[in-house]
Specification:
Blueprint lengths: L17 H8 L7 H13 L3 H21 L4 E5 L9 H8 L4 E6 L2 H10 L6 E5 L5 H5 L2 H6 L7 E5 L8 H12 L7 E8 L6 H11 L11 H6 L5 E2 L5 E2 L8 H4 L9 E8 L2
Parallel strand pairs: 1-2, 1-4, 2-3, 4-5
Antiparallel strand pairs: 5-8, 6-8, 7-8
Length: about 270
């Protein structure tokens, strides 16, 4: 059983949550039987999903370090998920002790854990918000009181946009979130990619995610994902599988980038 009581307001433990499934992939304990059951179905379809989740966390950490080293002192992490090792504030504040971080999520359990973790950290907040309503998210007075959008911000959307079903809606979300970013800001996106959306594994995985909150998993093309960065300067190595974005391992550096199969891809773009 999870350490979290299933009577947390706003939580239905019988409906799998993508945040808690992701926690399970990473080896966490903050999940319910329904989450574990759904996650195991995905693992049966894609045995490497746990490794992919770890690679995505490594991508996020590496990108935050790069942003901090390039002068970013504020970070907005939307769809932050349950706290784990090497969270954004830990990575950023190791380089910039007073770096400001706002975590945003719509899962009550995520917020409960994040607020407990951050109780003694005056530079970091955890707020409720939904990426599908970016205007409301950005207008939250707590957010605008903590982050100064006239200065560079690291906007992080890690493995969250592929849960938004509408292509136009997703593009509009990114445009809205990008609009207030000052020069020197950075946008991070990791997203589920498939060269063939009719791939049986892709379809099988989507069926599992239909039963979750939010109820969708959308595979998009490199062209669609790349368009989210239009007008930005992509940091090297561009849009690649997350494992291939500036990996720490020399062995991983030598692995040829393979985009012939479904993958979680990611990139970081800089606002000029």
């Amino acid at each position: 059983m999870s350490a979290v009581e299933p009577d947390v307001p706003g939580v239905d433990p019988t409906v799998p949550s993508v945040a808690r499934m992701y926690d399970y992939y990473l080896g966490g304990k903050d999940n319910f039987p329904a989450d574990r059951e759904a996650a195991e179905k995905i693992i049966a379809i894609v045995p490497e999903v746990r490794e992919t989740a770890r690679d995505n966390r490594a991508f996020l950490g590496s990108a935050v370090r790069v942003m901090a080293e390039q002068g970013v002192r504020q970070f907005l992490d939307i769809g932050a998920g349950l706290p784990t090792q090497e969270n954004v504030h830990q990575v950023a504040q190791r380089i910039v002790p007073d770096a400001r971080v706002v975590y945003v999520d719509n899962d009550p359990i995520v917020l409960t854990h994040a607020r407990a973790l951050l109780a003694d950290n005056p530079y970091t907040l955890a707020l409720w918000g939904d990426i599908t309503d970016p205007a409301a998210l950005l207008s939250d007075p707590e957010l605008s009181g903590h982050l100064d959008f006239s200065r560079p911000v690291g906007l992080l959307t890690s493995a969250v946009l592929h849960f938004v079903p509408g292509d136009q809606q997703t593009s509009d979300i990114v445009k809205t979130l990008r609009a207030p970013l000052a020069p020197g800001s950075h946008l991070l996106i990791s997203h589920f990619y498939a060269p063939d959306t009719g791939d049986p594994k892709v379809r099988a995985g989507q069926q599992v995610y239909k039963a979750t909150r939010p109820g969708a998993l959308i595979a998009r093309s490199l062209r669609q994902i790349g368009a989210y960065f239009d007008g930005l300067s992509l940091l090297e190595p561009g849009l690649v599988p997350v494992k291939s974005w500036r990996p720490d391992s020399e062995l991983d550096r030598q692995v040829e980038v393979d985009l012939a199969a479904p993958a979680l891809v990611g990139a970081v773009g800089r606002v000029s």
